[in-house]
Write a structure and sequence with these properties.
Largest sheet: 10 strands, mixed
Number of helices: 16
Number of strands: 18
Bound molecules: 6-O-phosphono-alpha-D-glucopyranose
Structural class: alpha/beta
Shape: globular
CATH topology of the largest domain: Rossmann fold
Distance between the termini: 35 Å
Helix content: 40-55%
CATH superfamily of the largest domain: Glycogen Phosphorylase B
Number of domains: 2
Strand order of the largest sheet: 5-6-4-1-7-8-9-12-11-10
CATH architecture of the largest domain: 3-Layer(aba) Sandwich
Radius of gyration: 22 Å
């Protein structure tokens, strides 16, 4: 069996198996961010192909060596839909939905994490670097260290890490912290997430923490140093710049505007259909602006792309019903024969179409109630090579820490959100340009390559310096 010097372990492979046995890109920001990193590193990627009971041999795809993990229908239900997305996801997003604590789901989470650790252990070369990703695999760092003490192990947490008062609800709070602390470096999106993690470690495990360092006791009576720090993730900014300059994509942007009836302004929302994204708050604000007569469907259309996500998990089914009811009501009340209030698309689109949409949109609405980073905000900014367009961005998205030149909003404050949307719609070109230039500078300087280099440099250093004491 061939081994790799660099291994990524994530719940999903970068490609998903589709209904007719082909491959399509996997959903979400994690894969979008890591793919370009992996392509350069020439390593192996351990993950699930997105369908239950699929047994596949390792294979090469688009310059990457992919190592598929089989999840049975039962694993999908308990480890993925249950513990990952009905326990951890809502808990870590500040209980916007109520987390469900089921012992059987936890058992399944443990055993699937073991399976990922086994696969990573068998594909990693002696002394290799293994980079574990996200909340579905929080136990893998420690399991992997037990199996392969020779490895350098990094972990990156793509979603928020909650305040201790919430984290403390988790019945398995110690095991999860111990699992994560198997890594040499534990990366978070925001400084606040790293702080919340360090506090949980102090409160639960009583380990000593100093600046970003955590002293982790070991079985032999010694200890090692783990680093818990913020490394805000980013996108392949140059790729978006190139796409945004392509003639066919610019033509498509104009075509989209025409297809929508050439409204004066297009507002855009792009999200996985998830209750953390604040899609209802956005629609409520927009609907009220129409009701108040502050905006009119003759002039303004909201395009909402909501890509299907986790469709068998209870709160996601409910959310879909609520959103579709809201869209129907708003459109029913305000549409005319020629104009629609909300163009709602429950679909996923290829990247080219997304860039055309970004170019067509005058105002991008990112109203997340809680979001690890939100890469859509960065994609919009990178695509605006014309230095036009307005980003309305929630303070509760990690991206707000870096993108201070956006119009920052509190999505819970509907009155404030309405005022900001109105301001964005009427913002003069000069102010748009000033803000957009500052946003673009940040995203282009701090792209996904800089992110992975920062993380991997810290990992390299920690693995040399961290050692035993
Ligand atoms: C977020 C998570 C990722 C996840 C993605 C898509 O970006 O941080 O770990 O892969 O959502 O969700 P899904 O459940 O479809 O993998």
């Amino acid at each position: 069996m061939s081994t790799a010097e660099f291994v990524v372990v994530a719940n999903r492979l970068p490609v998903d198996r589709d209904a007719d046995g082909g491959w399509r890109p996997s959903p979400g920001g994690l894969v979008a961010a890591l793919e370009p990193v992996m392509r350069k590193a020439d390593g192996a990627w351990v993950g699930w192909a997105g369908k239950p009971d699929l047994e596949l041999e390792p294979f090469d795809n688009d310059g990457m060596h992919l190592v598929p993990i089989t999840l049975t229908a039962d694993d999908v239900e308990q480890y993925y839909e249950g513990f990952s997305n009905d326990t951890i996801w809502p808990l870590y997003h500040d209980v916007i939905a109520a987390p469900r604590y089921r012992r059987a789901w936890w058992e399944s989470y443990v055993s699937v994490n073991e399976r990922f650790a086994d696969a990573a252990a068998s594909v990693a070369a002696q002394g290799a670097t293994v980079w574990v990703q996200d909340y579905q695999l929080q136990l893998v760092p420690r399991l992997l260290r037990e199996r392969r003490p020779d490895l350098t192990i990094g972990y990156f947490h793509h979603i928020p890490f909650p305040a201790y008062g919430l984290y403390a609800q988790l019945p398995w709070r110690r095991q999860v912290l111990e699992g994560l602390l198997g890594a040499d470096v534990i990366g978070f999106q925001r400084v606040a997430d790293a702080g919340n993690f360090a506090r949980a470690v102090r409160r639960q495990l009583r380990y000593e923490t100093k600046a970003s360092g955590i002293r982790v006791p070991e079985a032999d009576g010694g200890s090692r140093l783990a680093l818990a720090k913020a490394f805000p993730i980013s996108i392949d900014a140059e790729l978006y710049v190139e796409l945004a300059q392509r003639e066919d994509i610019r033509a498509r942007a104009a075509e989209i505007r025409a297809e929508l009836g050439n409204p004066k302004k297009i507002l855009l929302g792009v999200d996985r259909l998830d209750y953390t994204k604040g899609i209802r708050h956005r629609m409520k604000a927009f609907g009220e602006l129409l009701e108040d007569g502050r905006l009119s469907v003759e002039d303004v259309t909201l395009v909402q792309v909501a890509s299907p996500s986790r469709e068998r998990v209870g709160p996601y089914m409910q959310l879909r019903d609520e959103i579709e009811l809201t869209v129907g009501r708003i459109n029913g009340d305000y549409d005319t024969m020629g104009h629609t209030a909300i163009r709602y698309l429950h679909q996923a689109f290829p990247r080219e179409e997304m860039v055309a949409l970004y170019l067509a949109a005058d105002v991008m609405l990112v109203t997340a109630l809680r979001d690890g980073m939100n890469l859509v905000a960065k994609e919009y900014v990178a695509s605006r090579v014309d230095n036009r367009g307005v980003l309305v961005l929630s303070e509760f998205a990690g991206a707000a820490d870096e993108l201070g030149s956006a119009l920052l909003i509190n999505p819970h404050d509907i009155g404030g959100l309405k005022n900001t949307i109105e301001r964005a719609v009427h913002m003069p070109g000069a102010e748009q340009g000033r803000r957009m230039r500052a946003l673009r500078r940040r995203v282009r300087e701090h792209d996904v390559e800089a992110w992975s280099q920062d993380f991997l440099a810290a990992l390299d250093e920690a693995s040399h310096a961290g050692g035993h004491r």
